[in-house]
């Protein structure tokens, strides 16, 4: 028997247009589906500009001004916005008791690779220039934003910038060749993402660029050493589960510190759905908040609960 919440999500997605149609139609459907979910009570949302791009600073009650999480939304590098990810970023801010800077980076096909990497890296540097210490900063993202999180770390390391204290990747897309077995073995289980859909978005994003470029597909980086502690969360039934497990193996092989949690029966970025539908959504966000609080010195706890981690 499948997870009852996933069955509800499958029915919703079939009618929403989020996973079908043109890029423009999917963008509109994603934003439309998010408009009925305002930020939760307990956060303050303020517009700002980072790296020349629109952004929002989401500050939870009790959150200070000396730490921040740069959040990079998902959407296959072709969709996603401040509207679509304000709710998820707000919940992360509350769980970690840390302000979140949600970035509206440029999207493909209008602005292909490496525009997203350039925007996210510039946003990080703007935050540092504002007086924030990298030891009090983290980078986080979901799906394409999870892959972009790794790309930003690699770009910063290559340029000699100080790296943040920690990073979080929710269902990261880190292999734009879609070559792992789970793209086939989980195809019938994940209503959110398909290999065909990812192939299309990869083409839009990459243009003529090599899909194995480490800033597009961090899984193929020659060296993943020297990165900060990273938390990876993924659903067992999503086509990207192998991206997450292979990334974890690579990070550990290169001497990195990484935690992986695989949530049984769950699908792509399940954290974006209400706990009324997916109770594990709040559990995962709580684990993320605890991890970030521990590494940023905030006040949301000192241990990282990993109910199914390894």
Structure description:
The structure is a single chain. The chain has 310 residues and is α/β, with parallel strands linked by helices. The protein has one domain (4-296): Rossmann fold, CATH 3.40.50. 38% of the residues lie in helices and 15% in strands. It contains nine helices and eight strands. Strands 1-2-4-3-5-6-7-8 form an eight-stranded mixed β-sheet, sandwiched between helices. Strand 1 (43-50) and strand 2 (53-60) form a beta hairpin.
Descriptive key words:
alpha/beta; disordered C terminus; 9 helices; 310 residues; globular; Rossmann fold; eight-stranded mixed beta sheet; 15% strand
Please tally the β strands and state the result: 8
- Determine the N-to-C terminus distance: 25 Å
Q: How do the strands line up in the largest sheet?
A: 1-2-4-3-5-6-7-8
Query: What is the CATH architecture term?
Result: 3-Layer(aba) Sandwich
Kindly name the structural category. Answer: alpha/beta
- Estimated share of beta-strand residues: 15-25%
CATH class: Alpha Beta
Mean pLDDT: 91
Domain module tally: 1
Largest sheet: 8 strands, mixed
Number of helices: 9
Helix-strand string: HHEEEHEHEHEHHEHEH
- Low-pLDDT runs: 299-310
The radius of gyration computed from the alpha-carbon positions, rounded to a whole number of angstroms, is 17 Å
Name of the CATH homologous superfamily: Alpha/Beta hydrolase fold, catalytic domain
Shape, please?
A: globular
Relative helix content = 25-40%
Strand-helix topology:
Layout: H1 4-16, H2 23-34, E1 43-50, E2 53-60, E3 68-72, H3 82-96, E4 100-103, H4 115-129, E5 137-142, H5 144-159, E6 166-170, H6 182-185, H7 195-206, E7 230-235, H8 241-253, E8 258-263, H9 279-296
Parallel strand pairs: 3-4, 3-5, 5-6, 6-7, 7-8
Antiparallel strand pairs: 1-2, 2-4
Helix pairs in contact: 2-3, 3-9, 4-5
């Amino acid at each position: 028997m499948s997870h009852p919440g996933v069955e509800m999500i499958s029915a919703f997605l079939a009618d929403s247009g989020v996973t079908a149609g043109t890029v423009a139609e999917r963008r509109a459907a994603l934003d439309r589906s998010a408009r009925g979910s305002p930020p939760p009570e307990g956060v303050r949302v303020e517009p700002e500009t980072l790296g020349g791009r629109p952004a929002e600073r989401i500050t939870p009650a009790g959150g200070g001004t000396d730490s921040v999480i740069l959040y990079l939304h998902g959407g296959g590098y072709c969709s996603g916005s401040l509207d679509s990810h304000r709710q998820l970023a707000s919940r992360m801010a509350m769980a970690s008791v840390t302000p979140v800077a949600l970035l509206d980076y440029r999207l493909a096909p209008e602005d292909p690779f490496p525009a997203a990497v350039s925007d996210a890296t510039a946003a990080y540097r703007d935050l540092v220039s504002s007086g924030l210490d990298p030891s009090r900063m983290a980078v986080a993202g979901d799906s394409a934003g999870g892959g972009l999180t790794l790309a930003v770390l690699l770009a910063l390391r290559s340029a000699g910038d100080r790296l943040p204290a920690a990073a979080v990747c929710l269902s990261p897309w880190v292999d734009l060749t879609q070559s792992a077995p789970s793209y086939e073995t989980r195809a019938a289980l994940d209503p959110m993402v398909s290999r065909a859909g990812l192939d299309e978005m990869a083409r839009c994003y990459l243009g003529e660029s090599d899909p194995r470029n480490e800033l597009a597909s961090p899984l193929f980086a020659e060296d993943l050493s020297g990165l900060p502690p990273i938390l990876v969360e993924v659903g067992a039934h999503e086509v990207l589960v192998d991206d997450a497990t292979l990334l974890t193996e690579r990070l550990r092989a290169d001497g990195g510190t990484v935690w992986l949690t695989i949530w049984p029966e769950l699908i792509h970025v399940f954290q974006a759905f209400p706990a009324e539908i997916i109770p594990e959504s709040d559990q995962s966000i709580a684990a993320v908040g605890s991890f970030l609080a521990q590494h940023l010195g905030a006040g949301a706890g000192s241990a990282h609960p990993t109910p199914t981690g390894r």
